[in-house]
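dumping this here before i forget
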Amino acid sequence: MTDIGLSHLSRRALLLASVYAATAPVAEAQTPTPRRGGTMVMLVHPEPSTLATYAVSAGNIPPVTTQIYEGLLTYDWDLKPAPALAKSWEISPDGKTITFRLQEGVTFHNGQPFTSADVQYSFMEIAKKVNPNGPVILAELTSVDTPDPMTAVFNLANPAPYLMVSLSSNNMPIVCKSVFEGTQPLNNPTANRPIGTGPFKFAEWNRGQYIRLDRNDRYWKPGLPMLNRIIARFIPDAATRSAALEAGEAHFAAYSAVNAADIRRLQANPILGSTTDGYGMTAAITALEFNMRRPQLAKKEVRQAIAYAIDRQFLVDNVLYGFAKPATGPLSSVFATSGFYTDQVRRFDVPDRLEIANRLMDEAGFPRGADGKRMSLYLEINSFGEQWLRQGEYIKQALSQIGIDLTLRSEDTATWLRRCYTDYDFDINEPFYSAGADPVVGVHRHYVSSAIRRGTTFVNNKDYRNPELDRLMDAATREPDQARRAALYHEAQKILVEDSPGAWLCEVQYVTIFNKKLHDHTGPLGAYQALDRAWLDR
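structure:
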């Protein structure tokens, strides 16, 4: 295989793009020595609609783009900040100034030197304006000073301790100012041919087949990366994805790339390994979103009735095959250690839940018709894996018990996102949320009224507006005392569950499946960090 492209290869040859024979016997009783070279095949599902990760937060983009873009920081296994493009930092005693000292000798893939001007532009002109997380995470950021090329000073209106857990390449990638200045970010020529400072360079995107990333020979970390290239493969069929792993034709699959129904079987395969490590910042929850612009769903009783009608344990057992637990609200129970989580909210998992749900539908003014139906609604099926269709099929059955006739609608990813986040042409949507290391990072944007931003994905598309909830979230953003901050989040959870702008279903435990010949592939951020140290034992 040469570096000039893969478009001439057959589909079968591409699956066999690895330079080693996956069926070779595994060495015993010794730690293999890291070896440079080889091609790693990574399964990504579904195929991204764009690589503009600075403006679109869909979870299938970062496995590719975090190889290309870098952030100011990365994180250790305790999820504490560690150096990336910033080699060190100082936070002022009042918490309103953060001074980052930048790595020297770093160049972008186009040869341009990395400086503080790129940091200033990335945050003030890109992240604050077009990043889905920007208006919430960077609300306190007023300016970025550049006293010299290797120093960037963040000026904050108020302390923002959560900011330091929000600066990875996934959340806040650093872009090249000279490439973006004077352009529309989403229409920039590099939106789908990204240029970063990371260990791998974008080489080719064969739509419907793969993205190829080649080694950055000028990477600033000495001796890295280890691999020659990474191939991100797109295989629509879940069974075929699993078969590629079993045959040794793919080496790595994370998040929804492996169907939950296949995980147990793949774990029993001797050439494969699995891990749940690397999902510490995920805190993933499956949920429903209700479009409150619809007259039926504008009524709280209807939204609550839908939440009562769904048996969350059934979803855990039969859709996610045990790799989950029932959710109680918008915050995952992983936040229990910080004190932020509470289950002292309205509970929908009560024995008489269907009786309550039907009564609420009556009270909302939707009696059953002669055919037993009260209303008809559409459910938009999440395009990120087969389990979402299975979940939708169950929800259709569950809601029929309370007189709701649900029609399932499946579309490609781009159409699904446009329908739900730009056109608002939906009744119920079934996304999943990743909360991140702090609720400000991944929870606020789904519920605060300031995050109603047409055309921005995975924000408040529900038209949910509650001034008291806004006040609590705003106060929690600024509150430095952990106990008082926890009390604010407890109150916010009670309000949100009572209002039910969504229905929270399951806390998901993702599993990464990998070929045992692939080493050093899992870090604190899992598939959302660079695979610069990954290598193949050939």
